[in-house]
UniProtKB/TrEMBL annotation:
Sorted UniProt keywords: Membrane, Transmembrane, Transmembrane helix
Main location: membrane
Family annotation (InterPro entries): NRAMP_fam
Residue ranges of the TM segments: 28-46, 67-89, 101-122, 134-152, 172-192, 213-235, 262-286, 298-315, 321-345, 357-379
Keyword Iron-sulfur: no
Localisation: Membrane
One Pfam family from the record: Nramp
Membrane topology: Multi-pass membrane protein
UniProt-recorded name of the protein: Divalent metal cation transporter
GO terms, molecular function: cadmium ion transmembrane transporter activity; manganese ion transmembrane transporter activity
Protein's organism: Priestia megaterium (strain ATCC 12872 / QMB1551) (Bacillus megaterium)
One of the record's GO cellular component terms: plasma membrane
GO biological process, one term: iron ion transmembrane transport
């Protein structure tokens, strides 16, 4: 249960998570607390719905989608695999930057070393257990270091609490970005699919499934809040954050050279666990399409990681591709969650299970909000691809 929660949480906490949180805090100051609060509520609604329906149906997201509308599962799988691959290039790059900050080696060499470590997790016989243990250890290390850095900046906690409930400004784009980054794309299914693989399924497992889904969001939220307070402490003192690398700048301003090394550890931990989570979940979306794919899933995951690494080493981060995939990623959550909500009312999929009305209503709310804002983002990003 804890393994699934940490897989979901550490998949969400990647290089983009660190940068987004830093930049939004810089722009909104203490009022960013409100954005975090709303995103936590929407995240819990989304994850609880998805995990419960997966557990009750005892099927993966793509299988459920194909039962709701033939062919939809294949479309969903393609979107998630393409998105996972593109974002994994960014995750590998982040891992390289993390090792660069810790040891001084080049980001390319750091990326290659990180890829080897990620691959080794899936080479061992008990890959699932190895992945669970790795993400838990990395998760605890990240949170511990982040809380330390937050404490060193002496943030105005009282002001942050007040503005969380009475913000000076409400930024809708920031809310959508946070929700999409925490439970969008492949992350929506990371924990739910891990529980299926571990044999945690059926109506009897729902209390544990619900607890695990909420735990995953809360782990992510602790990290988000700690980083928010660290940045707020730096900003409130009038210190200037370097726009070239906002998260690294915050850590350095907070604790000098030691802070920069801590940034390296946090960045590497965040990136490498996201590499593992993206590869595992993306492949879990195609392995059910044939017995051969299912039997060789670990080798396909390894291939996924190698392709991501080679793409970064040979091409770098393709900015335009990441922009488009980021926009598409915002639409995966409403498509996936909407499909699963329909499935929750089909006896052929969930049997006699009765989905709670409050979860349906909250799920529909998330679908509508994310569909509107995801569509807006996609329209906004498309022109940039043709410049």
């Amino acid at each position: 249960m804890l393994g699934a929660a940490f897989l979901m949480a550490t998949s969400a906490i990647g290089p983009g998570f660190l940068t987004q949180t830093t930049v939004f805090t810089q722009n909104l100051a203490a009022s960013f607390g409100f954005v975090i609060l709303i995103s936590i509520i929407l995240d819990i609604f989304a994850q609880t719905n998805v995990w419960r329906i997966i557990a009750v149906s005892e099927k993966r997201g793509q299988e459920i989608a194909n039962m709701v509308f033939p062919g939809l599962g294949y479309v969903l799988a393609i979107l998630i695999v393409i998105g996972g691959l593109a974002f994994n290039i960014g995750n590998i790059a982040g891992a390289g930057l993390g090792l660069n900050a810790i040891t001084g080696i080049s980001p390319t060499a750091g990326a290659a070393i990180s890829a080897v470590i990620a691959v080794l997790i899936f080479v061992v016989k008990e890959a699932g257990k190895a992945m669970d243990r790795f993400t838990q250890i990395a998760g605890f290390v990240m949170i511990g270091l982040m809380l330390y850095v937050a404490a060193t900046t002496s943030p105005p906690v009282g002001e942050a609490v007040v503005k969380t409930f009475a913000p000076d400004k409400i930024d809708i784009i920031a809310i959508v970005t946070l929700v999409g980054g925490t439970v969008g794309g492949y992350i929506t299914f990371a924990g739910g699919h891990r529980l299926l693989d571990a044999g945690v399924k059926g109506i009897d497992s729902l209390p544990q499934v619900t607890k695990s889904s909420v735990t995953g969001i809360l782990i992510t939220s602790v990290m988000r809040i700690a980083l928010f307070l660290a940045v707020l402490g730096v900003v409130s003192k009038g210190l200037q954050i370097d726009p070239a690398n906002p998260p690294a700048s915050v850590f350095q301003l907070a604790a000098g050279n030691v802070g920069y090394k801590i940034f390296g550890i946090v960045m590497w931990s965040a990136a490498i666990t996201s590499v593992v989570g993206a590869a595992y979940t993306s492949v879990s979306f195609i392995q059910t399409f044939s017995e051969k794919l299912n039997k060789n899933s670990n080798w396909i995951i390894i291939g996924f990681i190698i392709i991501s690494t080679l793409s970064f080493v040979l091409i770098g981060k393709p900015v335009k591709v990441l922009l488009l995939v980021g926009a598409i990623n915002g639409l995966i959550l409403p498509i996936a969650l909407g499909t699963l909500l329909v499935a929750a009312y089909k006896k052929s999929i969930v049997g006699e299970y009765k989905h709670p009305l409050w979860l349906t209503i909250s799920g529909v709310l998330v679908v509508i909000v994310m569909a509107l804002m995801g569509g807006y983002t996609l329209i906004d990003q498309l022109p940039q691809l043709f410049k």
